[in-house]
Amino acid sequence: MDPISRRRVLGASAAAFTAASYNRVLGANDTIQVGVVGTGARGGGHVRSLGNQKDARIIGLCDVWLKRAQARTQTAPEAQVFQDHRRLLELKDLDAVLIATPDHWHVPISMDAIGAGKDVFCEKPITLKLGEADALRKAIADSRRIFQSGMQQRSMTHFQAARDEYIKAGKLGKVTLVRTWWHGSVSSFVKPIPAELQNQPSDLDWKRFIQPTDKNRPYHPYQFNCFRAFFDFGGGQFTDLFTHWVDAAHMLLGEDTPNSANASGGLYIPELQNDGSGRTVPDTVDAALTYPGGWMCTFEATMAAGINANGLEFCGTKGKLYITRTGFEFTPVDPNAPTGYGGRRGGTGGSAPSGPFSLQPPPNPLTIGVRAAGGDEHLRNWLDCIKSRKTPNATIVDGIRSAAACHLCSISYQQGRRLKYDTAKERIV
């Protein structure tokens, strides 16, 4: 049975699994039986979060490294442990599947889960490459399964407030530039190899891990432990980090398909150039997307340290909005400032700061600050939608298009050229 065959969507594939989940209707007080595939750092976080939900119960854990799945049973003691996600999908009472594997397994496992009649939460990026999820999108629409893409900003109340109360309300005027950045992300891409992974553990199914990409590749500890550092398994900082911010820009501005992309970067940090890992993704990148609606979204990232770790800045003709996962600040243009537009964040319009030099700009009395509420809003939204059958906050289309924007940047970097994108056909031209 080929684990990445796209034919297993609705027809004969469903017969291999239980048909009960197609017809089971969950009430408000019912417990949702969940399986988690991929139990590393991100998946482990989801296991803990699911454990905090009174109406969710983890009944299955799956990982190609069996030891890692077994370790999560400390949080989910009732869960059965598997090394092959297809065996997890055979669990009789399974309602939903949460996927937190490396990127190259996202679409294949999602296809299998939808084909088995399960609702799905899949971590970002949804796809490893452009066009990969066309069949998945159709399968979700035809089966009416609930599919939540893992872009949690869409469920954060302060992102929703920024969209509804400031951008949609016109307080920024015409937004022409969204500037995004993510600095100091080295730990996501460069990690020391634990002694137990230097050689392949007996309970690590390397062939299964590598199967969607290359069935015959020999065991490589760096590629398993630091998969994000290799284009075979992801898109580096473009798809791991920019996916979140470009999706937030799509959400707030209501436009999700760029018509051009241009990116550059390289492996510039000396101590990372010859570390023996064979890493292929750059440590420093800069990218720019343009949109038919008349605005740009830029992204700069480096594994080196930066002044501000990460965030987005929406620049409009009437004001500016700075937002992160911890909250946002809105500053209207000061009509009394000498230059009108622009100015430093927190400063007054375009006027220069007075007094002694300071790394922090002076407070602006016009700035309004809103703090994040915190919590597991995105996971909670998925669970609620499983019961209500309403559309979740981050649909498969949202996930595909935000990933596509990042894939364009990655392709532009790798090919060393500016790309034009057909927004109707969703293809490079």
Give short descriptive properties of this protein:
ten-stranded mixed beta sheet; alpha/beta; 429 residues; six-stranded parallel beta sheet; 21% strand; Dihydrodipicolinate Reductase, domain 2; Rossmann fold; globular
Give a summary of the structure in a few sentences.
Strand 15 (419-422) and strand 16 (427-428) form a beta hairpin. The chain has helices at residues 12-15, 20-23, 41-51, 66-71, 85-88, 106-115, 134-143, 157-167, 186-189, 206-210, 221-225, 236-253, 270-273, 377-388, 396-415, and strands at residues 32-37, 56-62, 80-82, 96-99, 119-123, 147-150, 175-183, 260-266, 284-291, 295-302, 310-316, 319-324, 327-332, 368-371, 419-422, 427-428.
Provide a descriptive summary of the structure in words:
The protein has 429 residues and is α/β, with parallel strands linked by helices. The chain has two domains: 12-145, 3-Layer(aba) Sandwich (Rossmann fold); 156-191 and 226-377 and 406-428, Dihydrodipicolinate Reductase, domain 2, CATH 3.30.360. The protein has helices at 12-15, 20-23, 41-51, 66-71, 85-88, 106-115, 134-143, 157-167, 186-189, 206-210, 221-225, 236-253, 270-273, 377-388, 396-415; strands spanning 32-37, 56-62, 80-82, 96-99, 119-123, 147-150, 175-183, 260-266, 284-291, 295-302, 310-316, 319-324, 327-332, 368-371, 419-422, 427-428. It has a ten-stranded mixed beta sheet. It has a six-stranded parallel beta sheet with strand order 3-2-1-4-5-6, sandwiched between helices. α7 links the parallel β5 (119-123) and β6. The radius of gyration is 22 Å and the shape is globular. Mean pLDDT is 89; it is low at 1-21 and 340-359.
